[in-house]
Amino acid sequence: MTETIAAISTAMGEGAIGIVRLSGPKAFEIADKILKLPKGKTIQSVDSHTINYGHAYDPENDQIIEEIMAVKMAAPRTYTCEDIVEINCHGGIITIQKILQLCLDNGARMAEAGEFTKRAFLNGRIDLSQAEAVIDFIKSKTDEASMIANDQMQGRLSDLIKRLRAEILDILAVVEVNIDYPEYDDLEVETTSTILEKSKSIKEDLENLLETSKQGKIIKEGLNTAIIGRPNVGKSSLLNNLLQENKAIVTDIAGTTRDVLEEHVNIKGVPIKLIDTAGIRETDDLVESIGIERSRRALEQADLVLFLLNSADELSDVDRELLKLTQNKEIIIILNKLDLETKIDLEEVEKLSYGHPIIKTSMTSYLGIEDLEKNIRDMFFDGKIRQKDATYLSNSRQINLIKQALTSLNEAISAAEIGLEVDMVLIDYTNTFKLLGEVIGEDTSEELINELFSRFCLGK
Cβ-count burial of 358 within 10 angstroms (0-12 exposed, 13-18 middle, 19+ buried)? Predict the structure, then answer.
């Protein structure tokens, strides 16, 4: 990492402020070529971690570009553990691009996506789980998602993983003692007892991590929620009511929704991706048929199904078929149009619901929406969004590694329980140790690191 990199660190477009970030061994030198500070000061001469007024300057054309405020931060107390200069200017597109180009023309290289955070990782300031939390924090859609990402950035998951690895190292040390002194039979008995006691504690921690991983994934990514039902039962009205705005066209004409509409909403702290589907029915309309087929695919991929029935109509064969299709899904049945005379057979609905919640609503009067939102939260979080002291896994990579580590640990415990010699379980414990290390970036391949950081935006 001998090169100095530069990138725009604020969102592109018009704004009050734009920031160009320089990081690397020549950050101060490059900044002094393109910045003029008052009274003959230079970036190299001013104190670290100070903000300095000046102007961006084009040395080739001897031209002042813009008023700036330059932040100097000397290594190692910086985000990347390298020398950093952040040039703050007005947020116009042209100006900030000119300043970036000046940096590139005077010795900097354009940063790759996520390269600043990648350097923070490679320089040891953060581990891989903390680096992943940075992008989670940027993309968080709710307060809960933001708090979980912040906990992970502060090292909550890292601390747990490091503690578990330290405990596994203790087990490995005990095993090694037994291997070195095989003549002591009583030592082997003591060793096996110690291994099992420590292993079961580690196993419990890993199981707790996986237990909370589903909630963490939902809080971070949201619930894919499909709104399904026959045409004209109120699906689009439900979408509009949950969004509290008119996004979907609502008419009394069956087949108005001819494609899948997707919108994001925060329901009592739970991020939801609402999918308003075309009413499922037999039709000769080609366009509507395509929309219906997409609705079926959305149903298959949904984490949660909101299944609407028209309480003012009798239950149809299509309704019964749809109920069968969703019986293995997380589903909430919604009896809509409660403001009209009820004709649907409630006993049959309850029989076909397979114990899933049934909510009665009227979309025209907003009746039942509060109960629906509470049921969605309770179904996935038992009435609580997150446990205050819980540690969450934030992505599939971490979850898969913890699952593999738990499998390897269980194999080691089983071997110890059936009385195999302690050196026989050494491989499984070593593998558990290695897999946990991969969660925080120990023994991680360069290809994986490059792939992970490529998901970041430029300037981060």
Answer: middle
Lateral strand order in the sheet of 17-23: 35-36, 50-58, 63-73, 84-90, 17-23, 5-8, 109-110
pLDDT at 293: 58
Longest dimension (CA), the chain: 86
Q: What are phi and psi of 166, to 5 degrees?
A: -65, -40
> Which of 138-147, 236-245, 335-344 has the least mean pLDDT?
138-147
Q: Which of 35-44, 166-175, 346-355 has the highest mean pLDDT?
A: 35-44
Residue bearing the bigger pLDDT, 421 or 344: 344
Pairing between β-strand 358-360 and β-strand 331-336 as defined by DSSP bridges: parallel
Q: Which residue has the tokens 């970041």?
A: 456
Which residue's entry shows tokens 């593998």? 431
Residue 303 · residue 253 · CB < 8 Å? no
For the whole model, what pTM was predicted? 0.66
